[in-house]
Amino acid sequence: MSVFPLAAKPQRPRRSLRKFRQRGSMGLTHVLLLVCGLAWMYPFLWMLGSSLKTDSDFFDQGLNIFPRHIQWSNYPNAWNEASFGQYFLNTVIVASMTVVFVLLFAAMAGYTLSRTNFPGKKILLGLIAVTLFLPHGYTILPVFDIIQRLGLLNSLTSIILVQTAGGLVFSTFLFMGYFSSMEREIEDAARVDGASFNQRFWLVMFPLAGPMQATVALFTFIGAWNSFFIPLVFTLGVPELRTLAVGMYAFIGENSTNWTYLAAGSVITLGPIMLVFVLLQRYFINGVAGAVKS
Q1: Which among 264, 270, 273 is positioned nearest to 52, based on CA atoms?
Q2: Distance, CA of 259 to CA of 279 (rounded, Å)
Q3: 215 closest CA partner among 125, 103, 104, 127
Q4: Interior angle at CA 192, CA 191 and CA 196, nearest 5
Q5: How far apart are the first and last CA of the chain?
Q6: 172-221, pLDDT tens digit by residue?
Q7: Residue among 284, 283, 107, 119 at smallest CA distance from 179
Q8: Are both 100 and 167 inside the same structural domain?
Q9: Following DSSP, what letter does each residue of 252-283 receive, concatenated?
Q10: 157: nearest Cα among 247, 227, 241, 244
Q11: What's the burial of 118, exposed, middle or buried (CB within 10 Å: 0-12/13-18/19+)?
Q12: Contact between residue 248 and residue 82 where contact means Cβ atoms under 8 Å apart
């Protein structure tokens, strides 16, 4: 009888086969994701290519992305023809002020709801959540009547107030979830030092909610920047107060539409949104992860 142990059977072929299958599955997944990503990006790429086409190329090439003759003049012409300078300024004011108000009010409401208990709290949260599913068309008449009675019709203030009210519900729930996921030891330490409820919020919790602030700011900015219905209704009598989304209609005439200018205007409108997302994407991911974790 041999004193040496039997040699283990080689496992390399089985392991190699397993790695091959894993790599094949991973490669197939990447290919599918790439195809889906290109399909998802195609409308934007087509719009970008169309913004650089001549009128004849636009109609001759159909769904082709690449222009035969690059027409850079579409951008300055679209900017000047549709008064985009004034519309751009109006949109910046509306979007910026809406973000500021939503951040302040939603953070205060979210912190209060996450840290206090009172009778009927669950009922109140349920009623607030229901408003998320109400389309603007069902509430625009009473809101319009309130704005008119306040004497704010045909002003940027009316757009800011209405869009702030519309963005508060979703943002409040995001802040509520984020504050609920934060450890209470930090607040307890501030409470021991004599900090009041308001001081704990402004000096401790609100600065620590930077990722959620970026997330809410991004959502709110995109919604306010792209909003069409509310700016159209509340500035209908004053065309000078239109935002970019409403101003795009300058390229759509009764009998014809300038499609290349419309595409160029769309790219101009999307530019600031893409820039803001690139700047805030890291905080956006952290904020969403914190809210979902709770």
Answers
A1: 264
A2: 31
A3: 103
A4: 30
A5: 64
A6: 999 998 898 888 888 888 888 888 888 989 988 999 988 889 889 989 99
A7: 107
A8: yes
A9: B-SS-B-HHHHHHHHHHHHHHHHHHHHHHHHH
A10: 241
A11: exposed
A12: yes
Domain check: are 40 and 142 in the same one? Answer: no
Give me the domain span that covers residue 88.
78-293
Q: Which of 178, 174, 253 is nearest to 217 (CA)?
A: 174
- The Cβ of residue 101 has, within 10 Å, a number of other Cβ atoms equal to 18
More confidently predicted of 17 and 23: 23
Are residues 91 and 24 both part of a single domain? no
Domains identified in the chain, total number: 2
The number of residues making up the chain comes to 294
For 189, the token pair is: 């330490």
272 phi and psi angles, rounded to 5 deg: -60, -35
Prediction pTM value: 0.81
64: tokens are 């082709």
Q: What residues contact 131, with CB distance under 8 A and at least 6 apart?
A: 169
Maximum pairwise Cα distance, the chain: 104
Same-domain status, 155 and 34: no
Q: Does a structural domain hold residue 72?
A: no
Residues 45 and 87 in one domain: no
Does residue 29 share a domain with residue 157?
no
List pLDDT tens digits, range 38-47: 888 888 889 9
Per-residue pLDDT, averaged over 79-102, amounts to: 91
Same domain, 119 and 236: yes
Task: Work out the average pLDDT over 83-99.
Answer: 92
DSSP class of residue 33 equals: H
- What is the domain-level CATH number for residue 247? 1.10.3720.10
Residue 111 domain flag: yes
